[in-house]
User: Fold this.
Amino acid sequence: MKIKSIGLTAVALSALAVADVHAGSRLLATSGVTQLEGSAGGGLTPWAVISGYAEEGEYSIGAFHTSTDVQDFRLKVNGVSASYDNRFEVSAALQSFEIKGVAGDLRQEIYGAKYRIYGDVIYTALPQFAAGIQYKRLLDGGIAEAVGAEDSDSGIDYYVSATKVHLAAIGGYHFLWNATLRATQANQMGLLGFGGDDESGYTLQPEVSALVLLRDDLAVGAEYRKKPDNLSAFDEDSFSDVFIAWFPNKNVNLTLAYADLGSIAGSEDQDGFYFSISSWFK
Assistant:
């Protein structure tokens, strides 16, 4: 399966987001935004929330675009997602990673699925829990093979997430936290292949997010994502960011973040801004 038209689809659905469509019964911002691999959550890490605003018996479809620009690299991600019953989510994304000054991009397809196991982010005492899977197919594996990746073709990430909103918890403002545990072999999310000469098997990596809703439609927060360090050729650092997300309605959200991506493929101190737009409709 190829994803040749995802970029055009994202633009088209973003335009449709301003249309007057029927919204689900979930509260504004409980969709989260869309992370770099296509799952609903924060920008860096998936959450237990399901994309869109579909409730019981309802469905939602949507699209997103994310652009990240740091000193030596650019990453663009286009994707689509669908959900049903506030229980199931599927997604597809295409990552294009540009090394500045070098012709050609590293490209990776990611196909994801998520299932809500238990709870509700607001209405149950315990957090909402979900389990997910991300199948990653690297379209340009030459660099991954050259740097010592054990597998330069494909890999699978597995994760479990817990997300909870505490109403009026901090000075009267709503507070959300998320904790994700990911089993992965991916080097730089898979863009440099899977496994390596230092570590070839799966390792468990924690990811956390927290935000405060300043208004029903405006959130500020931060994220941290631990990543494996499988290759002796390069050190791989954790990702972190601070972000602001705006939800003008249930059909669209806009996110602006400042991300610290650490060392990438031997280039140190990679940090900069990323922008993301997500849209949903039924």
User: Anything to note?
Assistant: The domain at 6-281 is CATH 2.40.160.40 (Porin).
